[in-house]
Prior knowledge:
By secondary structure, the protein is an alpha/beta fold. Helix content is 37%, strand content 38%.
Amino acid sequence: MLKITRAANGGEVVIKLSGRMGTENLGDLEKLISSEADGRRIILDLRDLKLVDQGAVNFLTRCEADNITLKNCPAYIREWITGERR
């Protein structure tokens, strides 16, 4: 199960993801990200993300390509993202 919390602070929005993130969660997360006001910096805080699947890694890779910051990204997820870029 994925828990999503959102906090806005001036010009940035921090979306904290906790638990398990799978392909089935991506629709809701994409809607949340696209609903944010233009010009705001979006940060995904992944500190409490425990498990991801291939679809989630592809999504996070696209997020970085779209200038969304991945904060506190666990090492195994970072390695998987790096591998996807090769």
